[in-house]
Amino acid sequence: MTDWVLHLIDAGGYWGIFALMVLENIFPPIPSELIMGVGGIRVGQGRMELIPLLISGTIGTTIGNYAWFMVGWKLGVHRLRPLVDRYGRWATIEWSDVEAINRLFERYGQMIVFVLRFMPTFRTMVSLPAGLFRMGHIRFLLWTAAGALIWNIVLAGAGYYLGANFKKIDDYVGPAATVTVVVIAIAYVWRLMTWKPSGKSAD
Predict the structure, then answer these.
(1) Closest C-alpha to 47, from 1, 16, 24, 23
(2) Where does the record place the VTT domain (predicted)?
(3) 82, 97, 192, 195: least surrounded by Cβ within 10 Å?
């Protein structure tokens, strides 16, 4: 994956960074750590400028997340009711759980989106419920961009200061992502086996 990312960045420049960051947020297995880290390396080599790098990376991140936001927005929380009633057992949720999450997003939606921008996997996943629970478009875009900008500064700065050694991050990101998926899968199976519906259903 590292060679592919390097090729696209070197061939496309800032547009390559933009395209990769859009894809990274639609298909999370592409690591933003590697993309922006390599961008930081190129800044250190004098082949890129920091500000355009951060702008292209942040806009790409925001657009990628907005795609998932719009999927949730078009679906809408009320269309979930038949799905939750029929398949909620497999997601280990009831309609009362959906309503609780809805209330949480109404009160703290912007902070949820902002904070989860710094967490692997969740930084993309949070966009879907943000759209489902009708978080405002402008609020979502602003808080997503703010969190993405800070995270991109950290990653690009790490690439700048660590130089070529930063490319070794792919040796750690891949296994770390695999471990995360395995842990999530185990947690899901355990919850599925032990979950019992409360029987409560709010109309």
Answers:
(1) 16
(2) 30-160
(3) 82
For the residues 61-89, what does the mean pLDDT come to? Answer: 80
What is the residue whose two structure tokens read 């799905």? 83
**Mean pLDDT, residues 186-192:** 71
The answer to whether residue 189 is domain-embedded is yes
d(CA 183, CA 195): 18
User: How many domains does the chain contain in total?
Assistant: 1
Report the distance separating Cα 147 and Cα 72, nearest Å: 20
Domain presence at residue 62: yes
Cα distances (angstroms) measured from residue 146 to each of 162, 180, 201 = 24, 25, 37
73/132 Cα distance (integer angstroms) = 5
Tokens for 131, please give them: 């759209």
Q: What domain range is 180 assigned to? A: 2-194
Distance CA 180, CA 177 (A): 5
User: 49 in helix, strand or coil?
Assistant: coil
Phi, psi of 29, rounded to the nearest 5 degrees: -60, -20
DSSP secondary structure string, 7-45?
A: HHHHHHHHHHHHHHHHHHHHSTTS-HHHHHHHHHHHHHT
Asked if 88 and 200 count as a contact pair (C-beta separation under 8 A), the reply is: no
Q: Would you place residue 128 in the very low, low, confident or very high pLDDT band (cuts 50, 70, 90)? A: confident
